[in-house]
Structures are given as structure tokens and as C-alpha cells.
Amino acid sequence: MENVTVLGAGSWGTALAQVLAENGHRTLVWTHREEQANEINAQHTNQKYLPNTKLPENLLATSNLEEAVLHSDIIVVAVPTKAIREVCKTMGAYLQNKKIFVHVSKGIEPDTLMRISEMLKESLSSNVIEEIVVLSGPSHAEEVVLHHPTTITAACSNLDAAEKVQDLFMNNYFRVYTNDDVVGVELGGALKNVIALAAGISDGLNYGDNAKAALITRGLAEITRLGVKMGGNPFTFAGLTGMGDLIATCTSVHSRNWRAGNMLGKGMKLAEVLDNIGMVVEGVRTTKAAYQLSQEFDVPMPITTALFEILFNDKEPKVAVDELMIRMKKREIDLY
User: Fold this and answer.
1) d(C-alpha 45, C-alpha 54), whole Å
2) Lower Cβ count inside 10 Å, N or C end of the chain?
3) Is pLDDT at 333 greater than 90 in this prediction?
């Protein structure tokens, strides 16, 4: 059994910590809120993020980052994308030896256009990184804690490290595959949030199943176009971290991105939507980054562009949809 630290006690960090604890690992989850750590330790619950879930008694929590970092040589980074650099900067003072970092957030940093593994490499000294592994796939925390069958991917250029993470998490309800296509896995996990926002908008406009099916399939086409241009394997985008994650996020009420889009489609403004959800909606920041990437790599991404206009230029959702529908005609299958 291993000592494992999970940084971040949101819904996904907590669900993954539960998997690790149930697998017998000595698991310590870090939160910057002392009252949340006390709740997990004393009551074995995390009511804000996973209401009505009883956590394993061997799952412990701390609000002391130094204690969390020194607990293990395997650190699962489950904080929102916008918090990664700050957490890495603080954590750097306590790192004494090389560790395996497993990141589970799904986003791209606007302006720098860095994937999360690139952010980690830039924010941490190379002397303390043994490997960086991406853990991603179609996985709602609310279903994982109920032991509903879930299948995801551990990706690393070093497959030995990916297999180590596979062994840490895998059990009879949580199946883990391995992949060496870090670029494809990270991009698929991040960009599907953009399409999920668009799918939510479509549902908010009451456009039905035809429209959502079109958004998912054409969304996958533009994700793949960009991903292959950036060095990803096209087959990755047809797998768990591409099509799989896209289906789960575009069709489920568990998805914050879908819920945010749904509210936008019903006429709410972005600030009001984010206030209403009360948790990070990664797709909003990622939409900006995806739009910037489409410009940088000269890849047409019409759905992403339409969503960018809705989120950041106040375009009416129905107008954006109408403009998508009357674009210049084209072939369905294009070379990447």
C-alpha cells in the first residue's frame, strides 16, 4: 500500500481520495479550509461538494500544505486550473525529493495556452518531478462515490509511471487504462468542456436531440482537428478522453459546464450563472484559451468561436446558433 496525497477537496478530489482510501492506500487530502478538513476527519463527510456521501474512516484531511506534501511521494493535483500555479509556488518550499504528480483537472491556461502538465513543469523545479501523469476520462464524482462503474485513462510518456497510477486507482468499479498520448488526453479533457457549454445552451434553447447530437459530433471534429495539429493521436479523440468524456459532459445534469450553458440558453448572463453554480466552471476559461489556440494554429473551430462570442462579447445564443447553421457549405469529412 502507498502513501498518497490529494491536493484539493472539491467533488472530484474527494471522490478520487475515496477510491484511493477504499483501495487501502494511506490517503491524505488537503484543503485550504480548516473547517472542511475538520468535517472530513470528524464526520467523514464533505457536504458542500458531495452531500449525503459517507467517506471512508481511513481517509484523513489536513489544511496544512506542508504536512500534505511531506505525507507521500505521490501527489494528486485536483485543484482548479486557475489555482495550480499558486499552489505549486507554495508547495515548492516543502518539496524535498522527487515525486510523481498526477493531475486530474481539465483545462488550458488562457494567454499562455499551456496544458496543465506544462503549467506544472514550469511552476515546479525539475529536481522534484519524477513524472507527471494525467488522469482523465468520463467520470462524474457523484457517480464514482456511489461505486457506479467508471472507466478512465492514465496518460504519461513513461508508461511505467502510467501503470503505477493505474495500479493505485483500479478496482472493481473504477477501471483505468493507460495511454502515452499526453497531448491528446489533456486536450480532449479540456476542450470537451467547451462543447458541453454549447450543448447546455442548445438544451436551454429547447433545440432538442438533433441539435445536441450535431454539437457533439461536430464538436469532436473540431477538437480532433486542433488536437492533431498540436501533436495528439487522432485515435485518442475517439477514445475515453475524447468521445467518452464528451458524451458524459454534454448529456448529464452532473456537469457544471452543461448546467452553466443551460442557464445561458435560458437567458441568464454569465456572471449570474457563475454565481448561481457556486463552483468552478472550467469551460469558461478554456473557451478563451481554445479560441486563442484556434487562431494560433490556424484551425477552424466554429462552435468554439460562436461560444467565445456568447461568453465574452455578449452575443445572443440564438443569433450565434443561426450563424452556425448558415455558414458556407462544406464536406463533412475533412483532412485534419
Assistant:
1) 5
2) N
3) no
pTM: 0.92
Concatenating the DSSP letter of every residue in 121-187 gives HHHS-GGGEEEEEEEESS--HHHHTTT--EEEEEE-SSHHHHHHHHHHH--SSEEEEEES-HHHHHH
What cell does 48 get? Answer: 458542500
What is the average pLDDT score of the chain? 94
Q: Which CATH architecture has domain 183-325?
A: Orthogonal Bundle (1.10)
Which residues, 6+ apart, have CB-to-CB distance to 136 below 8 Å?
104, 106, 152, 153, 155, 185, 186, 188, 189, 240, 241, 245
Beta partners for 133?
A: 102
The residue among 277, 309, 279, 278 whose CA lies nearest residue 291 is 309
Give, as one character, the DSSP assignment of residue 313: H
How many CA atoms, within 13 angstroms, populate the side-chain half-sphere of residue 169?
Answer: 30
Domains 3-180 and 183-325 share a fold: no
* Catalytically annotated residue among 99, 192, 212, 288: 192
H or E element that contains 195: helix 182-204
What are φ and ψ of residue 54, in 5° steps? -95, 120
Residue closest to 161 by CA, chosen among 180, 188, 138: 180
Strand 129-136 to strand 150-155: parallel, antiparallel, or no bridges (unpaired)?
A: antiparallel
Q: 114 — phi, psi (to 5°)?
A: -85, 140
Confidence of residue 335 (pLDDT cuts 50, 70, 90): low
Domain 3-180: homologous superfamily in CATH: NAD(P)-binding Rossmann-like Domain (3.40.50.720)
318 labelled catalytic = no
Cα–Cα distance measured from residue 305 to residue 292, given in angstroms and rounded to the nearest whole number: 10
Query: What residues does each domain of the chain span?
Result: 3-180, 183-325
In terms of phi and psi (left: phi > 0; alpha: psi -120 to 50; beta: otherwise), the region of 24 is left
Cell 472493481 identifies what position?
172
